[in-house]
Amino acid sequence: MPARASLAASLIEDAEISALVGAQAEIAAILRFEAALARAEADIGTLSEAAAETIEEAIKSFAPDLAAIGQGMVRDGVPIPVLVKALRAAVGEPYGAFVHRGATSQDAVDTGLMLRMKTLLGLLCGRLDTILAALQTLADTQGATPLMAQTRMQAALPFTAADKLATWSRPLAEHRARLAALGDALPIQLGGPIGHGASFGAPYEALRAALAARLGLRDAAPWHSDRTLILDIAQGFALVTGTLGKIGQDLALMAQNEVGAVSLPGGGASSAMAHKQNPVAAEVLVSLARLNAGYLGTLAQSLVHENERSGAAWTLEWLVLPEMAQATGAALSHASGLIAGLRFRPRTEP
Q1: In what residue span(s) does the Fumarate lyase N-terminal domain sit (predicted)?
Q2: Residue 240 domain-assigned?
Q3: Is 349 part of any domain?
Q4: Is 214 marked active-site?
Q5: Can you give the CATH number for the domain in which 265 is found?
Q6: Which of 88, 98, 240, 309 lies 20 to 30 Å from 295, alpha-carbon distance?
């Protein structure tokens, strides 16, 4: 993983994404799950309104001790035991014991992740909309610029800037639709200790539906050991950065002095050769694409999820998925600035 204290970290840091994948956001999403669970139990009549309201109000005013939760994470492998203990104490008698009733750590953590991913995917879709609009503007204003197509790194046949732009915008539009569909279908996680719902008793399915409605997520059977969804999200990230990397690679090649088909915005100075303007932003897109491609392969190993819950595979997700989200957000930001200042130059000769 990139070292957050390194100089290179500035290439991947993204304040909006960091706010969604950081510890405070994670705890806030888990607390939202716990409050909604109590309310859903009241909705189906397995918990009194007084108990649910008391739990919800206590959670609203609850101030999590992030240091203690972090220590609990190291000790227990999950943040939930220490968090639930503190929540129950905050609720007090007689309702404290009803906090997290029937649920397991994975229910809280996975549902919290889905809540954050729903917001994050919407954010990424918004950034893709900005890029797609910028590409359309380029097509409208510079699309008639003649260019020389390149196949296998060799001059092929003449075409236009609009033709080139279409090879970038079409896949990005498809990735945007894919991310939006994922965001609209993210499910809750509610299976109890071993993922079959028995800990919630006979009204389990009604509770699941009520919880999903409360959280604005999809009702779904437990997916404790089926991590397909995590890979679907990760693949969405990798597809976006992969296509942005293709754009970056194209632009770096088109900006070569001997080609001169585009001029790029920004700096890119050399310490030894004052005449150079290196295509830094384009190169960063290539690097982030390759980074996410590697992460995707690493994350795919979390599908090997032994029995009903894997501590190792689950932990791997926590280490990799946020980094992929950061890389995707950063790539979209870099691409937006790059495309906004892009200018095509006529290139008709091989």
Answers
A1: 31-289
A2: yes
A3: no
A4: no
A5: 1.20.200.10
A6: 309
